[in-house]
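Give me structure tokens for this 504-residue protein.
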Amino acid sequence: MAEHEHVKVAVVGSGFGGLGAAVRLRREGITDFVVLERAGSVGGTWRDNSYPGCACDVPSHLYSFSFAPHPDWPRTFSGQPHIRAYLERVTDTFGLRPHLRFDSEVKRMTWDAEEFRWEIETVRGTLTADVVVSATGPLSDPKIPDIPGLDTFPGKVFHSARWDHDYDLTGKRVAMIGTGASAIQIVPSIQPKVGRLTLFQRTPAWVMPRVDREISGVERALHRALPVTAKLRRGVLWGIRELQVQAFTKHPGELGFVEQLAKRNMARAIKDPALRAKLTPDYRIGCKRILLSNSYYPALARPNVDVVAAGLSEVRGSTLVAADGSEAEVDAIVFGTGFHVTDMPIAERVVGADGRTLAETWKGGMEALRGASAAGFPNWMTIIGPNTGLGNSSMILMIESQLNYMADYLRQLRVLGGKVALDARPAAVAAWNERVQRRMERTVWNTGGCTSWYLDPSGRNTTVWPGTTAEFRRATRQVDLAEYTVLRPSAERSATAAPAQVGA
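Here you go.
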């Protein structure tokens, strides 16, 4: 980085959110920006998660930017390599590489109230920016539980998002910790090669069939020749998911029929009544994310797989002890235990106008105006912020809505002119959050009887959006200046105030 480099906008992260922000900035005529990325390539979570079987649970044509359609998706549900390749293609198509700063992890971002800009300290140097767009994403920092004795384990230990491809699992005794979206893809992928697989299941998941197939050459040719057909396909996929939202947000009781389908899906593969009992959840379907797989249950029924219906509680050398007292000798431990979602580490590194970090501001729970702006952090926005997650559709739809909001935010700054900053009013943030939490009360995520990663330690859902993607699009179409305090440097405020005083 050049010494004393200054840019108009600094984007942090180069996953879908960061690359989308970069494309939108260029479309708005803003080229004075950088994208700070801690790794050596783009891709975000689709770069970091390269575990066996990694794939998306949202249909390919919906899990892509509307402004960058891809007619050649090979399958209806794409695997990690194809999604990562798509993001590389977006980077090249929109000329983003000159803006990228790889191996530039942000150590600290501090608002300079005198200079009206953000000072950003990275591992490769310091730069300043008028505006920061944080797109680090909630699924970026793996969470490994604090297990007594884990540090004494003599074998291999890694998280699903930091897969060790140099370690050969063939013939090994492997423990899989967790039963989330990553675990149900990893288990059937490694089961045929390992000697023994022990699944430590704290809470069983609801699993539905994955209606996946290869997209034919004829379909792809049609989408290339007539792009409107791909747009229509995307629209149908979107519409179906929009219609499902009410069952999740207003009428969870309607999900009972879906539970019966999930139980039939299990019964087809799991013939052992005792194993079926272990794998049957005791909470309403949808309370945790509904998982999709055709191979998870058949893998669990194989003779070299054991399901322990309790979480891992202790490690004694190479022996793993579950909460129910059962033990397993293993050579390797794979954690599929999720990420720091409601306590994002980036929040520790952002210092606002009053000298407090974002983590301190969010100590009682994350909240941001329209999922983007936190009070006390002028000219700082986040993509995929609090209560912008989804339980049944594509996050790319939410990201694009937030990009609309970001674009109008920057337009407002341009219209206001001079050194200026927008700071979300605490009352506006509180009012927005109150509306969101009030709507959340009826949702399956709050009433379904489960404990999920959607909830923070106090039990508040600070992760999911309790409505349709169309509603969120309308809510983020433009910035309402009444929800912000317009800030200017003290010297500039004095200069503009002087004539009024003389005139009086």
